[in-house]
Design a protein that fits this description.
The protein is α+β, with helices and mostly antiparallel strands. It is 29% helix and 27% strand. A hairpin with a 3-residue loop joins strand 13 and strand 14.
Amino acid sequence: MKVLVLGSGGREHAISKKIAESKLVDKIFVAPGNAGTSIDFENIPISVNDFEKIGEFILNEGINLLVVGSEDPLVKGIRNFLEKDDKYKNLLIIGPDASAAQLEGSKDFAKEFMFKYNIPTAAYFKAEKSNYDDAVKFMKNLNPPYVLKANGLAAGKGVIIEPDFETACKELKEMLHGKFGNASEKVLIEEFLDGVECSVFVITDGKDFVLLPEAKDYKRIGEGNTGPNTGGMGAVSPVSFFEGDFKNKVLQKIVIPTIKGIQKEKMNYKGFIFFGLINVKGEPYVIEYNVRMGDPETEVVMPRIKSDLVEILIAAAKGNLKDTNIDIYSDICTTVILASKGYPGNYETNIEISGLENISDSIIFHAGTKLVQGRIFTSGGRVLAVSSLGKTMEEALKKSYTSAKKINFENKYYRRDIGFDL
C-alpha cells in the first residue's frame, strides 16, 4: 500500500520510520517533510493546509492511507474535505474531523467536554476582552502561580505560567490584545496544579482504543526546567511512576471516559489522542488534549512499538480496533533535542549541519532541517531529535548525549539534564 504522512517535524519523521517497518507498505510520501524524510522517503512540496493539492496527489498516486501528523489541517477540516467527495471513499484516514479536533483547537471546548464527562481537570475561567475585570477577580482567588492558556492553536507556545499577580494581569491583557494572534482572543485562566507531568497516547476508532507507550517531555528551554516554554526539548519513555495504581486511575478516570464521551457525542474520531496529564499526589488530572501525537514524545514512543503500526492504523481507520493488541519493547528510549540558539525566540537558520554520518548508537529524527544539493541545513528552532534505546535510563541517555556531541552546527543548543529527574 501507499501511505501519505502530512507534516514536517520530528514527529512525522518518527511516524514515517515506524510505518516503513511494515510489510504492508510499498511507498511512503511525506508532505512537505524535511531533510530526513527526503533522504528516507519521498517529500512532496505541498502545504499541510492545501487540501485541494493534497486531494489531487492522493488520487494521482493512488494513496491508500493518509496519516495526518500535525494539528492544523485537522482543526481546519481535512477529513471533512476528503470525506465529502466519493472520489476518496476508499481512502483510510488517521485523524478526527474538524468538530472532534476542537478537543485541541479550542481549550474552552475541551474543558466543557471534560466537565461534562467528569474527567478530572483544573478549575478555570474563560477570559475575553469584555470580561477582563471578572477574569482578574477570578485570578485573585487563586493561589499563585497563575496559568494562562490561549484558547486556540499557538504552536505549543500559548501557555504562560506567572508567579506574580500584577505581571499575570499584564500578560492576560497582552494575550487578549493579540500576543498570540487570533489564538488568544479568548484565554483560559486555570488553577495551577502542582505535580509531575506525563503524556499518554492512544489510537482510537471512536469506540475502542489501543494504549501506546507513555512519555515525559521537557518543555522549558533551560536546564532545571527554567525559562520559557518550547515545543519540547527532550523526552523519555517509559515513565517510572506511570505503572500500577496510577496507570489504572488514568485508564478508569480519564481514557475510558474520554472514549465514551467521544462515542456519546457521535464524534467522527479515528486516530491518535494525546492526553497531557499531571500526577498530583498520585491522582491524574488532564492538562490538555491533543488530537495527534506529541513532539518530541513521538520520537521516544515510536521506537518502543514492536507491533506492526500500520496494521493498528488500518484497524482504527476501518473502525475495527476491538480486540487489537499491541506489543511494546521493554527498552527505555530517550531523546535530546538539538535546537538553534535563541529558540523559542529569534534564531538563525540556513546553518550547515555536519557529523550525522558519525552516528551509530542513536536514531536521528529530523525536524527543522532542509536538504540543499546534498547538504543538510537548519530551517527551524528545533533542528534534530537524537533518540536512543537502552536497557536502563542511564544507558539510553549516555547514547543520546554522546551522539548529540558528534553532531555539529553553529550555535547548537541542547539541555543536558533530560531524564535526570526520574
